[in-house]
Amino acid sequence: MINPVLRLRQICLLARDLEWTSNVLCTAFDAPVVFRDPRMAAGGNLTNTHIRLGDSFLETVCPTDLAWERSTTQTRLLERNGDCGYMAIVQVPDVAVASRSMSAQGAGIGIVSGDWNVCPGTPGSGLAGVEAGRYVLGESLPKTPGTVSGVNVQFHPRDFGTLAEIQENWPGHGDFPNNKGAYFPAGNTWQNGVDARPHGGVTTGFAAVEIAPRDADPVEVCERWMRGLGAGSSIDPAHPATLKLAAGQTMRFVEPESAGRTGVVGVDLWAVPGIARKFASIDVCGVTWRLVEPAG
Questions:
Q1: 175-201: per-residue pLDDT in tens?
Q2: Helix/strand number for the chain, H first, E second
């Protein structure tokens, strides 16, 4: 039985031009930018935008001039691949359990980065007074009445085919389109627009992500994700490189095209039912985006 919390919640892209890329994505998907992370910008190396697709999020990250001077991981990736898919983020029911099992996969490189966040208030009340710190492997998410909280933990692309992140946030996660639980990567005010506009006129959110591992067997990488996520994810024996998540979502693992990009190379989007589709597939930021029929 697949855990209903276990969902592909966010895709992250890496681009040289943040505003141009974000504007193209907003127009293509009829979706708004809901958050720019001031703490990321304050770090000096990266700026970003978060676009809301239903109750899921599409992040674009862009290195600053300072990052280019320092030759960071992101600038080196852009030099190698150009604009590209950067990270897949899966929501998990228990980050303490999943962080341990994810860190044990592949070469066991473990956590690349991880943070906890706790803020007084409720979902939608903003981030005033937020406190944050470095996440320690196996720690549970703090869940204190009168606060919102979240943990993000990232793992090396060598083990998972792309930079991988798991997320747990509290208070919990309801069912779309009425899901207004906490989700820290996109801030804490995006919830206030869900009732007025649950989604735009193109897509209601992610159906699948397609990942081309670099120097690794797609079937083995798929199995690593399954062992790492646990919590009811499953692989159909007829499709051994496809991982099933909740709500009909999947993660597909494929061989890279000859001399082609690796990491996140494709994303399927649930088409809004009952209206004409704006496109069948488009290529933006090194990723192929396809509109597919809604699950069920």
A1: 555 688 999 999 999 999 999 999 999
A2: 7, 16
